[in-house]
Each structure stands twice: as structure tokens, then as C-alpha cells.
Hints:
alpha+beta; N-terminal domain of MutM-like DNA repair proteins; Helicase, Ruva Protein, domain 3; 2 domains; five-stranded mixed beta sheet; four-stranded antiparallel beta sheet; 7 helices; elongated
Amino acid sequence: MPELPEVETFRRRFLQGADSSPPLVGQQIQGATLLWPGSLAMPSHESFKSRIAGQTIEDIRRRGKFLLFHLSRDVLAVHLRMSGDLWVEEESKPIQKHHRLLFHLEKGMRLVFNDPRKFGRCWLVQDPTPLLAHLGPDPLDESFIPQRFYANLLVRRRQLKPLLLDQRFLAGLGNIYTDEALHIARLHPRTVANTLTRRQAGTLFGAIREVLSEGIQRNGASIDWVYRGGDFQNYFKVYQRAHQPCYTCQTSIQRIVVGQRGTYICPRCQPPPA
């Protein structure tokens, strides 16, 4: 699943242009073709086609794992979920098996929403606030400070791994960056949130920002068919490194299950809670 760094990489590529494709900002969407109805959460198909035609892409932002295309009158929100992908290609290219939604642009180009597992969704709304209201703070937002993070941890009696994956608590983290951050902070994923000291919370806060920033710098992680061009996978400290030595202490990395999610830890650097 694309996490915050991968979604941020999409945003920057579309803003700046990449792979011989021009920037999307300033381009007009001349129309849209919905190839699988389930990819459109709202509005209705007919309303969507009539509303989006003629709108210009004015800005592209991100909130957690949501990619937000700010148009002339509406906002197009996209959540890629398990296998969603976005790219710009020429209109003359054949439509692929997993193309779900096509946005027809100027100069013979189109923006493609491709999604093999069909979990991704798009919304066309006037105001995205209700759609995003359930999300917790963005860990890279300047207004999100260590004191606020610590206060939020103190009122949660949940294990750290499932809590950090909960988008209502913190928006943008998934399996990869949660495991990496917990390792850097030397915290076991089963540690209960409200047992952390202020110092431990501050260390975890810094570790989360560190791994997200490095992930963005390296254009995300390319670990399956969805991600393209990132190389953060070459710098994982624990994720998908089971039975390999920890770079810090040489102990063999273990794969455990926490909250029904596969989780990678160093048993020495991240001792279990008492």
C-alpha cells in the first residue's frame, strides 16, 4: 500500500513533471472515462462526467495518504489503498486491463488511475473537509509538535504498532514506515502507548519524521508492482529483513505478528515490554 512518502512522491512528480510528461498544474481536464464504477465513490457517474469536464488543475496537495487535485471548482480526492497507481500517458496507448478511470487532458495526454485489486477510490467534492475529518494529524505538519504527540499517546491504552497504523491517530503511516520508526526509536511494537516516558515519545516522534523524510528523499519504496522509481527499500533497517543481521547489533531480525499485521523487529534493540 502506498504510504505517505509514496503519495508525496506522486504529488511532486505531477507538480514538477516527470518521465517526459509535463506538470499537471494548469492543464484542463477535457473529460473522464469511468471503466469500473466502483472506483468512483462520489458523485454519481453522470454528475462526475459533467462536473469535471472543463475544469483546470490549479494545485495538487496531500493529506495523509490522500492525494488532492484542486480544480477550478471542485477537489478530486484519490486514495490508492492496496494497489492503486497513477501516471500520465499518451491517449494513443492501448487501455490496459487494470485501468479503472481515465482523465483526458490537453495535447493528447491522459491521467490514468490503475488499480488491479479495485480497492482504490476517487471522490469529486466541492469541499474535502468532511471526507478528511476522521484523519489524525499529519506527522510532517509544522503544527504537529512533540508535546502534542506525547499528550495523544498518554490517553491511549493501545499497543504502538496498531495505534500508529490507525489513520485517526496519525495520518500517513503504514507497515513499512511504522516498523522502521519503531526500530530507530528502540521500541517494541507491543509497547502500550500510555506507558511511554516523555523522552521515549520524543524519540519516537523524531524517528517517525526521520523515516518519512528519508522515504520522500528517496522517492518512496519500490517493493511490488505498484511503486516505481523509489529506492528506499535499499535502506530498510528491519522491514522485510527477517533472518538478516541487525545493522546495529548483528542480532537476527525477526518477523512477528502484532495486531494481525506482519511486523519486523530486532529482538535485542527492541526488547518486549515488561
